[in-house]
Hints:
The complex is a heterotrimer. Chain B is an alpha/beta fold. In chain B, helix 3 crosses helix 5, helix 3 packs parallel to helix 6 and helix 6 packs parallel to helix 7. Chain B has one domain: P-loop containing nucleotide triphosphate hydrolases (Rossmann fold), CATH 3.40.50.300. The longest helix of chain B is centred in the middle third of the chain and has 20 residues. By secondary structure, chain C is an all-alpha fold. Chain C has a single domain, classed as ABC transporter involved in vitamin B12 uptake, BtuC (Orthogonal Bundle). In chain C, helix 1 packs across helix 9, helix 3 packs across helix 8 and helix 9 packs parallel to helix 11. The interface between A and C is large, with 44 and 43 residues.
Amino acid sequence: MLKRYNINNQILILTGILIIVPFLLQNDFHFEIAILAILNALICIGLNLLMGYAGQVSLGHGAFAGLGAYISVILSSNYELNPLLSIFIAVMIMAVLAFIISKPILNLKGHYLAMATLGIGIIISIVLEVEEEFTGGSDGMSVDSLVVFGYEFSDSISWYILCAVLLVFTIWAFENLINSPFGRLLRSIHDSEKAADSVGIDVSHYKSIVFVISVVIATIAGSLYAFFSGFISPQEASFSHSIELVVMVVLGGLGRVYGALFGAVILTTLPQLLTAFEDYETLVFGVIIILVMIFMPKGIVSLFDKVVKKKEQNSASS
Amino acid sequence: MLQVNNVTKQFGGVKAVDNLSFNVKKGTIHSIIGPNGAGKTTLVNMITGVYKVDSGTVFLDGGDITNLATNKLVHRGICRTFQHLEICGNLTVIENVMLGFDKYMDKNIIRSCFRAKSILDDEKRYLERGMHLLDLIGLADFANNEAKNLSYGILKKLEIIRALATTPELMLLDEPVAGLNPKETQEVSDLIKTVVADEVTVILVEHDMKMIMNISDHITVMNFGKKLAEGNPTEIVNNEDVIKAYLGSGALSGK
Amino acid sequence: MIELFGYMLSGVTVGFIYTLVGLGFTVIYNSSGIINFSQGEFVMAGGMSTVFLLYAGLPLGVAFVLAIMITSLIGIVLYKLISFSKDSSQISLIILTLGFAIFLRGLAQVIFDKQLHTMPSFVGDGAFEIFETTLTYQALAVIVVSIVIVISLYLFFNKTKTGQAMMAASNNVDAAKLMGINIKKILMLNFAISAVIASIGGILLTPITSTNYEVGIMLGLKGFCAAIIGGLGTPFGAVAGGLVLGILESLVAGYVSSEYKDAVAFIVLLAILFFMPGGIFGNLKSQRV
C-alpha cells in the first residue's frame, strides 16, 4: 500500500520529525517560528515549482502571497465571510489575476522576466500601502481567528497540526506531480522548449499553469499566516519578503522540493539564532548567502546528496 | 498529402524562400536538397509553424494548416526533428521517448497529485510502448540513463524515435545525419527507410547525397529559395541545372 | 507653467542620479551579462564613506577620492567573488549579488550606523533663479558632473584603445581572447568603473537627499529601471531612461499623487518590457539577450 500511494522513506521521516518537533518546542514563540517556517516552506515549494522546474524566476512572490492574504482578510473581516470561504475566494481571484499577468510576462526572457515580476511585486506592495481605506495602510489590519466547521483554531498546537498536515500533503502531492506526465512535461520545458513544442506541448500554456499554481499556494500560505498571527501589514508583500523567499528556494536547493523545505526552515529560524549577533545580523546573513552561493551553488540539499552518494559508494564497494 | 503552394519568406531584403510550390505524396520519402543557404531549413520552419509565411499556403490532406503553431501541428499529425538536436538532457532516455506520447496522456493536475488510476495506467501503458520503440534502435538497456550522458549519434536516433512516438502521419527530418560518422549515418538511414517509412510519410532535408539517392522516392531541389528541379533520384542525378548548382557531378554520384 | 518647469528641473536632477546608477548596471551588464543587484549599495557606499571620512576630519577632496577608491575596491571584491563561484547560472548570480547587497548593508550598519546622514553641499548653498524656479548649485553640480561622466564613458569606450578592447571583448569573448585581450582584467576594470560611477552618484546625491545604510535599495532598483527603459546596449540608454524616469516621477508626484511616486519607475519598466523590451535605444543597436 505504501508503494501504491507513493509514501516513500522521506515522507515517513518528515512525518516522524514533524511529530517529534512539538515536544522539543518550549514555548509559544517557538511554535510561532515553527509554524512560520512551515508556511514559508509551502510558498517556497510553489515557488520552486515555478523557478526550478519551469525555469521562471519570480522576484515578486512575496507580493502575491501578501495580496492574496489581504483579500482573504478583507473578505473575512470586512464582509464577515467565513475564513475558509474567504481563502477560497481569494484563491480564485488570485488564480485569475495570475493567469492574466502570466500571459505577457512569461514571454520575456531571463533577466527581463525577473525584472517584470519584481516590478509587479513592488507595484502591488505600494498599492497595498497607499490604499489605506482598504488595507489599513502601513499600520496593517487585525485579523479574526480561523474557524473551520465550528472549530476555532486558537492555540499553537492546533495551528501546528494544521500546518504540518498541509506540509506533508503538499510535499506528497508535489512528488506525485513531478513523477506524472504533467511533471515530465514541465521538466521537458525546462530543458528544451523546442523539444516540448515538437511533441505537441503548448509551452506558454503550461508556463502559465505553473505560475498560477505557485501563486495559489502562496495565497493559501499567506492567508493562513495572517489568520494565525492575527495581523497583516504591507510588509508581507514587500520586496524584501519576495527576496527572502527566492533566497530560501535557492539556498535550500533549486529544483528540489526538500531544498525548498530546508531553505525555508533554515532561513526562518536563522534570524532567531542570529539575534545573539544583534547589529551584525544583516551582515552575517549576507555573508552566509555569499558563502553558500560560492561554495554550494546547488544549495544546502547538495550536502545531503554527497552524504547519500558516499553511502552508496561504500555499500557498492563493500 | 501535403501541398505547399507558392510560399515565400523574406528576411530583410533577402527572399529565403521564393514562391516555392511542391506536393508530397502519402507514404513516400520526399527529400529536399540544395546547396547551403538554399532555404531548406527555412522551408521546414515554415511548414512546421516556426516561421510565419509571408505569402502562400500549406495544405494537409485538403485542410489549411498555414501558419499553425508547431505544437498544434503535432495534433494534426505532423512532427519534426531538428538540425541542431533538441533533446531534454536531464530527462532519461525513456522519458524522452514518453514525451512523444504526451498528447495521449492525462495531464490533469488534481489526478496527477493524487496518483489516480488513469495516470498510473497511462504511465504503465506508454512505458511499455516506449521501451518497444527503444528496442528498435537498441537502446532498451539505456532507458534509465540521463540523455545528456549519451553520444550525439545515439541522441539523433532518439529524437527520431521520439517523433515517431507522436504517431504522426507526416514527419519532417531536418538533417538527421548531420555530424554523424558513416556507420551512424547508415543506421539512421536504415531506421528511416524501414521503420519510419513503414508507417509515416517522410520529408527529408539532407546534404548526404548517398543517403538521399538510396532512400528517396522523390526529390525537390532548391537553390536560392526557388525550386530548381523535381523528380525521382535518377532524373535528378541527370538534371543539368542540378549538376551545375552543385559544382560537378562528383557530388551527385555519391562520392 | 512655472510649476511645470520646477517639476521638470527637479526631475532632471534626480533623473541624472538615476542615470548614474543605471550606467553602472549597463557597464557591468554589457561586459559580462550580469545584473548586479548590489549596484545601489555601491551608491550608498560612496555617499556614506564620504560622510564619515568628513566626520573624521579629512578635507573634502581627500574624502572624495578615498570614498571613490573604497567603492571601486568593493566593486573588485564583488568581481572576485563572482569569479570564485562554481556555478555561473543566472539565478546563482542574481542571488550572489543580492547576498552581496545584504552584506554591504549589514557592513554599513556596523561600521557606520543606522542614522540618516548628510553633508553640506560642496559647491555652496546658493541657488540660481531661473524663470522663478530655484536651481540649487548642488543640483546643477549633479547635472554637470553626470553629463561629464556620460561623455567621458562614451569617449573611453569608443575612442581609447582600452575602451575599444572592452567593447570588443563584450561582443565576442573568444575572438577577444585570441587577440590577446585579457578578459579577466577587463571584467575587473568594468566592475571598478561601474563602482566609481555609482560612488560619484552617491556623493552628488547626499547633500540633496541625505544618505543612510538602506538608501541603496530603491535607488538600485530605480537605476536598474532607468537602464532597461533606456536600453541596456548603450550608455545613452541610461541617460534617456534616467531622465524619462526622473521627469515622470516628478510630474506624477506633483500633479497626480505623491504617494504613488515610487510606483512610476516600475510601471514604466513594465510598459517597456511588454511593448519595447529593447528600451528606447534598444531598437537602434543590437541587443545582448
